[in-house]
Amino acid sequence: MARRDDDYDDDDVPWLAEVEEERPASTSVSQRKLIGGIALFAALLALIIGGVWAITSGQREGGSSGEVAVNAEDVPLIPADPGPYKVRPADPGGMQIDGAGDTMYAAGEGADVGGALDPGALPEDPMPRPGTAAAQPEDLLPAEGASAQVAIPPARGTVAPAAGASAQVAIPPVRTPAAPPPVPVAKPAPLKPLPKPVAPVAGTPPAKPSTGSAALQLGAFSSSAAADTAWKDLTKRFTYLGGLSKAVGKVERDGKTLYRLRATGVTDAAKAADLCARLKVAGEDCLVAP
């Protein structure tokens, strides 16, 4: 038998029951909270405006920040110092610096300062090596008629005499060594007369005196007179060149005529090298020439 609809209960079928519509939660702010927020914002704004007004009014009226001039006439005027604005110095050239006018700067720029060499700058002669000098004899013997006093230490086991007592010490006499026997001196042989010089044969040039095997080349000059002047100056400044002979030779070089100055008569090449070295130390030009 068929079942009627009244026989069904809503509790038996819950999905068929009526459901109440859900309402969303209210997100609006209450009127009281809204009024309080507006009042707080207005108070903060009034506080900021009041602070700005207080600062600006204090600056205008001369507050703690200092006096501020409003008009240009109120700016203080600073007077200038009495006296002239500029004073010409007593020394227009400026401060003098030590060494500013030395000849070294002019010589470095190529100017002729008219300097002269110091002969005292030449190298000194070498000193003898230690031990090579002759020993000086010492006079160990007393002078004739003088009494010799010799301090003799007391022997072991003896007592020294008391102060004030006279002590007599026997001093052996000093013996003077006998003089060596005289050395016989050989008599010199009689001198032979020198041979008379033989007159040279007519047409044959006389032989030149013998000279050394080396020479010093001291420079080349534009004229013979300039070479002679240089030789006189060198021999005057360097005395060790006085024993040498002057030789001026004419040479042609690059289409120019030069007069070469040489000092001849040097014994050997070693001596010539030594003389050249001494001249170079003094600032002169020198070359060993055969």
UniProtKB/TrEMBL annotation:
Keywords: Membrane, Transmembrane, Transmembrane helix
An annotated Gene Ontology molecular function: peptidoglycan binding
Transmembrane segments: 34-55
SUPFAM superfamilies in UniProt: Sporulation related repeat
Transferase listed as a keyword: no
Domain annotation SPOR: ranges: 208-290
Biased composition regions of type Acidic residues, renumbered to the chain: 7-21
Matches recorded under Pfam families: SPOR
InterPro entries given in the database record: SPOR-like_dom (IPR007730), SPOR-like_sf (IPR036680)
Region described as Disordered: 1-25, 117-136
Protein name: SPOR domain-containing protein
